[in-house]
Amino acid sequence: MSDTKCGFVALIGEPNAGKSTLLNRMVGAKVSIVTHKVQTTRARIRGVALEGDSQIVFVDTPGLFRPRRRLDRAMVTAAWAGAADADLVVLLVEAHRGVTKGVEAILDSLRQHAPDARVALAINKIDRVKADSLLALTADLNERFDFEETFMISAEKGHGCDDLKRWLAGQLPDGPWLYPEDQIADLPMRMLAAEITREKLTLRLHQELPYQLTVETEGWDERKDGSVRIDQVIYVARDGHKGIALGPKGETIKAISTAAREELTEFLGRKVHLFLQVKVRPKWLEEAERYSEMGLDFNDGA
Q1: Claim: this prediction has a pTM higher than 0.90
Q2: Which of 54, 83, 107, 146 makes the best surface tag, with the fewest CB within 10 Å?
Q3: What distance in Å separates the CA atoms of residue 27 and residue 11, rounded to the nearest whole number?
Q4: What residue spans define the domains of the chain?
């Protein structure tokens, strides 16, 4: 019998339910993009957390929603694949929104796509509602689905997250750890760097260009002085979008570059030279190569 435990935990829920915030809270570092705009998580980012002798590998799935475009369909397929393959599933439900049509659809899909899954319920953003509302919501959801455990949490403030983490750690199968002790994600650094820049773009341009852009890291040059040069391309769908991303006299792209460089410097613990270009690529949403860059299968969106 192994002295250690290790397994996969899938975080599922509606867009903006707090999955990325919870993942970052559990891991203790920022490994998943967090913005106030729905549907920002594209790739199945795995964050690695330690709790006692257990290594918890989190799969941060895209928010489950009704897919319209190829990219949407590929993301939803990835989400259900992550849930079905995991040892445990955590369904996040926003306390103040309750049982929405989206939550009902997710419960139906859980029964259909992952009938054998072990599922825990995490009611998030509990600071937004009163206690009696929480109890009623808990009772309602547990009548609808056979959850193994229910947790009341605030992923943003940390309330209840330690209890959830301890429970997850105790439920994992015995086995050796999959990742080194100091590793917090299995996302390649080039992709993680692109995610950080995309977050800054989303925060800055959330009204103008919420989903019409993607970022790719084209160059990663380790310098002799210990610093790193990172070259990235921001792909947009139209000429007009390029002007929005650049901003008047290039002010927008400069601000985004500064914010991304500062976070990358802190994350990597060394000096970063970041160079951004904006290119128009009208059909990037239909290119298989772009999907593989995001860790998605182009054919899943067909």
Answers
A1: no
A2: 146
A3: 13
A4: 5-171, 189-301
